[in-house]
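Sequence in, structure out. Go.
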Amino acid sequence: MKKLKEQLQSLTFKQKLEHIIEYYSFHVIGAIVIAFFLVMAIITFTNQPIEILSVRVVKADITSEQTKGLQIELEKSLIKNDKEMLSIRAINMSDVSNNPDSLLTIQKLAAEIAGKEVDVLLVDKDVFQQFNEDGNLYDLSNFHVFDDWKTRKYPSVKDPGTITGIDVSNVPYLSSIVTKSEPLLFVVMANTERLDKVKEFVNFFNE
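Output:
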């Protein structure tokens, strides 16, 4: 700054102004560029859709193609505007032991569940038993829509008075992911933070 003052002493006012503009132009341009990118980042963040529900279909011989129809129907029923989104992903348990990529997918699912990023699981009986033994499933008796259902209900291993799984194989909207003669079980993660949207999903079964 002292050096700049010395340089300006012998200059006219116009020359001083031009010199200052030239001296600070790099800093001004840098500040403008930074401000631009900050504004763009804020706009991008605020325009990103919010995930309102996360569903994982975890069973043997399931494919992403089978879950597409369910996602379309759920989006019609649950999505209210273009700032909302939901995710449904298929996790095939058939080749976990032989496929390293499948094993990584299971590990990712575990991390998502721990991070409260998964709300609902649609699973076969074998997968249900694994989750049920862990004791991390929500009590489905809190959803009164199931009170009159004649389908089989599965209790918690740790607390037989708690319902942690229910057979939804006969729900028409789920027909694309049902394997004949095998039950498809609906479970909710106990740590979900989007229970209101889970309730909407449950009401969707009766539409």
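Check: The mean pLDDT is 82. The chain has two domains: 2-46, 50-204.
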